[in-house]
Design goal:
about 300 residues; alpha/beta; 7-stranded mixed beta sheet; 5-stranded mixed beta sheet; 8 helices; about 35% helix; binds zinc ion
Length: about 300
């Protein structure tokens, strides 16, 4: 695992770029909070950027890096889902890149973008600073189901994953390189992020997420780029599926025995921290319990 000096939260730094396949570069998030892994995928005539970073100043850095890398090739932008650090810099790309996303993500952005902006501005001064001047992005192309983007001698596959971490998660794969960008369906070194905020946002589904993970595993990628954390192999997908299943099983076993939700959350948190002592952000365990507590086998 690479080591990084105390990275500044919320700030994209163009450093430590990893060329994980020819003309396919990832700017790693260096374990910085609210910074995603960012991809730049090149073909003969076009370049696709995956994720913008949070706010215009981060997105300007990403756009400059991508434009320098593209050397005159046409630019495209996509984002894995509407969350701030992934998509709330898209406006900076307007006129410079063609922004394309799946229908469910565009719907998420339209329905929840403004309220997420307000909510996150209130979560900390350092977040509010990065969000200064944000205008919500407007996709140029909204597709249904899946989209094959021809970059010239290389095709990037964009696919709506189905409801999981959000309603609108999108997965980007580059088949010739065996690479898959998962967004927040997968993280490395931390507990799965359940944005379960009743009554405001209850779109995350632990059960559907398990099903989505199986489909990603069936896609047999060789390299997995998570939303946050270190790049890895297909084992990352199996690890997430396993964690989601154990979270479901530990929650349901207690629910079925009549235990109160609050007690379940406390007990399952303790169990999961014990099983995954190296993982960060344990506060997501309780939210995951809350989500799965509300769900029932089909
Ligand atoms: Zn997210």
């Amino acid at each position: 695992m690479p080591e990084y000096d105390q990275p500044e939260p919320g700030v994209v730094e163009i450093t430590g770029e990893q060329e994980i396949a020819p003309d396919l570069v990832v700017v790693p998030n260096r374990h910085a909070q609210l910074v995603p892994n960012i991809g730049v995928i090149g073909g003969a005539h076009s370049v696709l950027v995956v994720e913008t970073g949070m706010g215009p100043r981060n997105a300007e850095k990403v756009l400059k890096f991508a434009a320098d890398h593209a050397k005159g090739r046409r630019l495209y932008l996509t984002t894995t889902h509407f969350h701030l650090e992934h998509a709330f810099g898209a406006r900076v790309f307007a006129g410079q890149a063609t922004y394309l996303v799946n229908r469910a993500q565009a719907d998420d952005l339209a329905a929840k973008g403004a309220s997420y902006l307000e909510m996150f501005r209130g979560l900390g001064e350092w977040i509010a600073r990065q969000l200064e001047g944000v205008e919500l992005g407007a996709p140029d192309v909204v597709y249904d189901g899946s989209y094959e983007l021809d970059l010239g001698g290389r095709v990037a596959h964009l696919r709506s994953a189905g409801r999981a971490h959000t309603k609108g998660d999108q997965v980007v794969t580059v088949p010739d390189a065996g690479v898959m960008f998962t967004g927040d369906l997968v993280e490395t070194g931390q507990f799965a992020i359940f944005p379960w905020f009743p009554p405001y946002d209850t779109d995350v589904s632990g059960l559907r997420w398990i099903g989505v993970m199986q489909r990603l595993i069936d896609g047999r990628p060789q390299v997995v780029v998570p939303g946050h954390g270190d790049i890895g192999g297909p084992q990352l997908l199996a690890d997430v599926r396993y964690y989601l299943e154990e979270l479901r099983d530990e929650t349901w076993r207690r629910r079925d025995s009549g235990m109160r939700e609050q007690t379940i959350a406390e007990e399952v948190r303790a169990v999961m921290i014990q099983r995954h002592p190296d993982w960060a952000e344990p506060e997501w365990i309780e939210r995951g319990v809350g989500c799965l507590y509300s769900e029932h086998a089909a």
